[in-house]
Design a protein that fits this description.
alpha/beta, Rossmann fold, 6-stranded parallel beta sheet, 12 helices
Length: 348
């Protein structure tokens, strides 16, 4: 079987990571291609059996029509049995290009339905998504929002890290994972404000922020207090990092199905998330395997932080619950769902 993947790039981010995971899986059994229009070197490991296609438009000026022509040409050249597309803007473009080819196609939303703020893209999604054979979502919350398309299903992101064999001592550290370029959606400003309220009571604790750093931090972050805050950048062995930290937090304003939260739970961190739009509240059961804070409520985020820091027994309870919950996001079950979906679509 030939599988053709369309995504803007493979240079970092949650959607790109899941795409890389799927590509590496598909190429074990299928002839697998990925077309990218931002041809940077893949950030995540990519099997050399995956055919990487440079789908950039090199013409100057208007790129609207050339983009579809280029994508349609790629589809005609590869003649895939099925196309898979990630992210709403790319999904819309792929669906238009496929009008000239009529191949089986699956499109996947990788964030909360309400995250897409472009009015144009929302209208195009409403018009074009019914052309897809199936739509893959990453939260059940969004199912009712796609009432215009009855072919939706939810496939949560997988926990790719191995579960820890032993539970060692953990540092007095709160950790979050977010590139500073996404500071607003990840609520890094909210977290820094909540941390400033927390660290004055717990001066022997640190906040470590992991994620790729591109250039200077924005003014919205540099103007906030940074006592006991460490910008740790990217770390290749994030599993080892998570296994040594006590608390993981996402202070997000919106999310899809956050990989970082699932993997922090799999490594036994006591986790805090917000009840923002998206998948956090579908992953964490409040008080059982994590704590839920009110979205964009700095006081409540600070209260949840202080509660966990001050109660080691609660941290241990939530840590044990988190490890059990993460088992529901088994990578083999994830691969099986995608394999079954592709087989179903191709056979119809």
């Amino acid at each position: 079987m030939k599988i053709l993947f369309f995504i803007h790039g493979l240079y970092g981010g949650g959607a790109e990571r899941v795409a890389s995971i799927l590509l590496n899986h598909f190429c074990e059994k299928h002839d697998t291609y990925v077309a990218v229009n931002n041809f940077k070197a893949p950030f995540y490991p990519l099997d050399n059996r995956v055919h990487l296609i440079d789908d950039r438009i090199k013409t100057k000026g208007a790129r609207f029509i050339p983009r579809f022509v280029k994508m349609a040409h790629t589809i005609h050249k590869i003649k895939p049995d099925i196309i898979i597309s990630f992210l709403v803007t790319g999904n819309n473009k792929t669906l238009v290009a496929n009008l000239f080819c009529w191949r089986k196609i699956i499109v996947s939303e990788r964030n909360s339905f309400k995250h897409e703020r472009s009015f144009k893209q929302r209208i195009l999604r409403r018009i074009l998504y019914p052309l897809a054979n199936r739509i893959v979502l990453v939260t059940n919350e969004d199912q009712h929002r796609f009432i215009f398309h009855k072919k939706c299903l939810t496939i949560y992101n997988p926990a790719m890290l191995d579960h820890p064999n032993e539970h060692g001592s953990r540092q007095k550290t709160v950790i979050t994972i977010a590139p500073h370029t996404r500071w607003h959606s990840k609520g890094l400003d909210l977290l820094l404000k909540a941390w400033a309220m927390t660290v004055q009571h717990f001066p022997d604790w640190n906040l470590e922020i992991y994620g790729r750093i591109y250039g200077e931090l924005p003014n919205e972050l540099t103007c906030l207090p940074h006592k006991n805050v460490i910008w740790a950048g990217w770390h290749d062995d994030i599993a080892e990092v998570l296994r040594t930290k006590s608390i993981f937090i996402l202070a997000s304003r919106f999310e899809g199905c956050p990989n970082s939260l699932i993997e922090a739970m799999s490594q036994g961190c006591a986790c805090i998330g917000t009840n923002c739009e998206g998948g956090i509240k579908e992953i964490i059961t409040d008080g059982v395997d994590g704590l839920i804070a009110k979205s964009e409520d700095v006081d409540d985020i600070a209260e949840k932080l202080q509660t966990l820091i001050n109660d080691e027994n609660l941290r241990r309870k939530l840590s044990a619950g988190a490890i059990e919950k993460a088992k529901q996001f088994d990578k083999n079950a994830f691969f099986a769902k995608w394999d079954n979906l592709i087989e179903e679509v191709v056979k119809k």
